[in-house]
Automatic annotation (TrEMBL), chains A, B, C, D:
<dbReference type="InterPro" id="IPR050272">
    <property type="entry name" value="Isochorismatase-like_hydrls"/>
</dbReference>
<dbReference type="Pfam" id="PF00857">
    <property type="entry name" value="Isochorismatase"/>
</dbReference>
<dbReference type="GO" id="GO:0016787">
    <property type="term" value="F:hydrolase activity"/>
</dbReference>
<feature type="domain" description="Isochorismatase-like">
    <location>
        <begin position="5"/>
        <end position="172"/>
    </location>
</feature>
<dbReference type="InterPro" id="IPR036380">
    <property type="entry name" value="Isochorismatase-like_sf"/>
</dbReference>
<keyword id="KW-0378">Hydrolase</keyword>
<protein>
    <submittedName>
        <fullName>Cysteine hydrolase</fullName>
    </submittedName>
</protein>
<dbReference type="InterPro" id="IPR000868">
    <property type="entry name" value="Isochorismatase-like_dom"/>
</dbReference>
Amino acid sequence: MRNIAVVVVDMLNPYDHDDADLLEKSVEQIVEPLSGLIRRAHRSSHARLIFVNDNHGDFTAGREELQRRALDGRRPDLVEPVLAPSDSPFMPKVRHSAFYGTPLDYLLRSEGIDTVVLAGQVTEQCVLYSALDAYVREFSLRVARDCVAHIHSDLAEASMRMMERNMSAELLPAESCLDV
Amino acid sequence: MRNIAVVVVDMLNPYDHDDADLLEKSVEQIVEPLSGLIRRAHRSSHARLIFVNDNHGDFTAGREELQRRALDGRRPDLVEPVLAPSDSPFMPKVRHSAFYGTPLDYLLRSEGIDTVVLAGQVTEQCVLYSALDAYVREFSLRVARDCVAHIHSDLAEASMRMMERNMSAELLPAESCLDV
Amino acid sequence: MRNIAVVVVDMLNPYDHDDADLLEKSVEQIVEPLSGLIRRAHRSSHARLIFVNDNHGDFTAGREELQRRALDGRRPDLVEPVLAPSDSPFMPKVRHSAFYGTPLDYLLRSEGIDTVVLAGQVTEQCVLYSALDAYVREFSLRVARDCVAHIHSDLAEASMRMMERNMSAELLPAESCLDV
Amino acid sequence: MRNIAVVVVDMLNPYDHDDADLLEKSVEQIVEPLSGLIRRAHRSSHARLIFVNDNHGDFTAGREELQRRALDGRRPDLVEPVLAPSDSPFMPKVRHSAFYGTPLDYLLRSEGIDTVVLAGQVTEQCVLYSALDAYVREFSLRVARDCVAHIHSDLAEASMRMMERNMSAELLPAESCLDV
C-alpha cells in the first residue's frame, strides 16, 4: 500500500531567469540529499514518486522537451542528478501550485495517498503554494527540509514556519521523510 | 463597468478559537478603515463588494446563521461595523482560501473583474492563501494594508512581502484601493 | 460509518422559468418517493443527506432565501414535502453541476463517502452534469430513478442510459438506494 | 486577436479498447474533415488550435509517447492525418472532460478566448463532457458536427441535441466553425 507521495517540484530549470544566481546557490545544497530521496522513494514499496514541473509558458512542451531544455541550460549539474526516472509520473504545470491545472489531486486520491512529502524549488513560492493546496485538501504534509531551495532566505524561513505552524507540516530531513 | 472586486474575508468570527486574543488586538485596528472601505465599495459604480466567510465546519450554516453566531460571540463590536450589506454577495467557504469550494472565481469572471482587493483576516493565513489563488488565476492583486488583521505579526509581515514581491500585489491604504 | 451520500439537487424552485409547465408534470411524480428517500436518509446511520440548489443568479441568496422564494412560488406543493431538514448540509450552486463552485467534493471526501445517490431535477441537465462530475472523481453512482424529474422525456431517457452505460451508474428505485 | 479555440479531443487512440470497432467506423468518416479543420485552424490568425488527449491511465506518458502508441496501434490511418502540429499546445488528460485536471481553462482565459469549437471522440462521452465543462464556465460553444465520432449513434444523437438545446451550442460543419 503506497500511502505516501514524494512530490518533486520544478527541478527541471534552465536557470536563465531573474534571481537564478540566488537560487542556484541554494539548489547546490539540496542536489545530493534530494537525489537520495528520489532514489529511495523510487525503490520504496509504500511511497509514490511524482514529478511536477512548470512548462515556463510553453504549452507545446512535455516531459522530454522540459528535460532537454534544463539539461541544455546553464546548470545541468543541478538537473542531471535529480531527473525523473522514466517510470515515474510526470506532470507539466502552468502556474505556481503543483495542484493548479494538473491531475495531481486525482492521482493522489486514486492511489489512496494521505501524506504528501514536498521537495524542490522554490521554498517561498511553488513549494509553499503546493503545500497550501495539499493542506486545504486535507493531505498530511511533510517538507523535506534539506531538499527545498530558496531565492530569499528570509521569506523561505517564514514559509517553513507557516507550513509548520499553520498547515501542520512536519519539517523532516530527507532520510526520515518516508518513515511510516 | 465594475472591474474591481473588494473581497472581505472571514470577518464573521465569534472569536472563540485558539489565538483569538492575539487576533482581536489586530482586528481592533482594522475595523474603522475596513468599515469605510466597505461603505465606499458598496456605493461605488465600478467596484463589486463580496463577502466570503468560513462556515467553521458547519455545512448547515449560511449567511444568516454565520452572522448571528458572530454577533452572539465574544466581540460583536468587531463584527457589527463590518457586516455585509444585504444586497452584497455572500459566500460560505470551508477551507482557508476564498476560492476553494466557492463560486468566487465564477462570479469574478462573469462580471469581467480583473482586479481583486483583499481585506479581512488572517493576513498570514486566509488572506495570503486567497491572494495566491487570485494570483495563479491572473487577477491583479491589491491588499488593503490597513484592513488586514493577523495573529502573528512576524508571519504577517513576511506574508505581505511575499504578496508584494512574488504575487505583484500592491499594498495600499484603504482609501486608495478603489482608485482606477 | 457514513459512506453513502444522497445528494438532492435543485428542488427549491419557484417554477416560474421557461418549460416550468413541462417540468412540473414530472416533478409531481417524484415528490412522494423523494420525500420518503429524504426521510430515510435523514434517519440513516450510514447515509449522509446533502442538498445542493441553484441560486438562480442571486449571489446574495442563501438557504433561507432560496427556500422562501420556492415556497412563495407557483408550486409550493412540490417544494414543501422535500425541504431540507434544518440539520442537513445545504449548498447554493451557481451553475448546473452540483460540484462546480461548491464544497461538495470536499464534504464527500472529508466524510469518507464513496457512493453518491443522485435525486432531484432536471434529469437531462443538472442531474446528468452532477453525475458526470461525480464519475470523473471516481465516486460510485446511483440514480434514484423514481426521484428524478425531467423537462424532455427523450433527453432524460438518453441521459439515464448514458449514466448507466458510460458512468457505471446503478438506476435504482428510491427504496433500494441506501442498500449496502 | 485569437478569440476562438479549436479543441481536438482524444484522437490519439490505439483503438485496442472495448467498442473500438464501433468507434473506428465513425472515426473513418471524420478524418478528412477534421484534418481540414486542423489545417485551417493552424493557419488562422484568430483561432487557437489545442489538443487534449487521454493518457489512458499512464501518468508517465506525455505527447511523444501517446503519439507513438497511437501510431503503433491498430489504425494508424485514423491517427496520422490528424496529428497535432508540433507548435500546437498539447495536454494529457486523465478523465473524460478536457477541463478536468488540465490547464485548458487557464490557457483559454489567458488568451482571451470566448468561443470553444469541439472536435474529436467520443461524441456521447468526452465531447459531451467537455462541452458541459465549457458551458458552465460560460464559453460559447460550437461543435464541428462532421468532426465528432461516436460509439453509439443513438446516444450521440441525443448528446448533440443536449448540447444544442441545453448548452446553446451551435452545431456546424467544419468549414463554418472558424467563422466570426
